[in-house]
Design goal:
216 residues; mainly beta; six-stranded mixed beta sheet; elongated
Length: 216
């Protein structure tokens, strides 16, 4: 019993130290730097390495650029179904009296009724709002950008993780490099924590387990 208590305490303490698993793809949010040849600097104002046309739009389009995603997810779903059935039946029979018999004619009858009804309903809603800045990891041949990013927020002794990944159409990028999440294809959004609430859930499971072994 002592070993079980020690194991339970270790499990509760380790619950806050585990980073929640991620559904965001790819796992990396920053792309490894590609080695480039060092260009010769002649000391002039013009530098080919950092050149951009003066009238060029400064919107994100290259690997390593940043894009701010406005999370404006609002989904809801409703499902209901029902079934009913009714069945009625009756039967009647009789026995005729024999000729000259004093026994009168006997009759028998029976009726039955069966009904069945079933109903079910389910409602689901999801609201997610906020913002996160992601990094362009790759540019597809058609110009679409593969982006991913993660934001961690420390709250007391816990940490909140906001992760995002998807494919952005360059035409959807507004001024300031801002894109609403509703215009991102293959979007994966998640919000997870490893705060004390998660540890409390683990402790609740352990409490029910120990009470099942030694009920009060």
């Amino acid at each position: 019993m002592v070993r079980l208590l020690v194991a339970g305490n270790l499990l509760v303490l380790s619950a806050c130290a585990i980073t929640p698993t991620s559904i965001v793809q790819p796992d990396r949010t920053t792309k490894p730097a590609v080695p480039t040849n060092v260009s010769y600097n002649s000391g002039g104002i013009y530098s080919p390495a950092t050149f951009r046309p003066m009238l060029e739009d400064r919107r994100a389009r290259l690997v390593g650029d940043s894009i701010t995603i406005n999370l404006v997810e609002n989904t809801s779903a409703t499902k209901s179904n029902g079934a009913s059935a009714t069945k009625d039946g009756s039967v009647a029979s009789g026995i005729s009296a024999s000729l000259g018999s004093p026994v009168p004619r006997a009759t028998f009858g029976a009726t039955s009724a069966t009904s069945y009804e079933d109903k079910a309903a389910a409602n689901s809603s999801n609201v997610f709002s906020g913002s996160i800045t992601v990094t362009v990891l790759d540019v597809l041949p058609n110009g679409y950008m593969v982006v991913a990013g993660e934001k961690q927020v420390g709250l007391d002794k816990g940490t909140e993780f906001v992760r995002f990944s998807g494919v952005v159409n360059p035409d959807s990028v507004a001024a300031g490099n801002v894109v609403p999440s509703t215009k991102v294809s293959d979007a994966r959004i998640e919000y997870r924590t490893n705060s004390k609430i998660d540890a409390a859930q683990v402790a609740s499971i352990l409490t029910r387990f120990f009470l099942s072994l030694a009920p009060l």
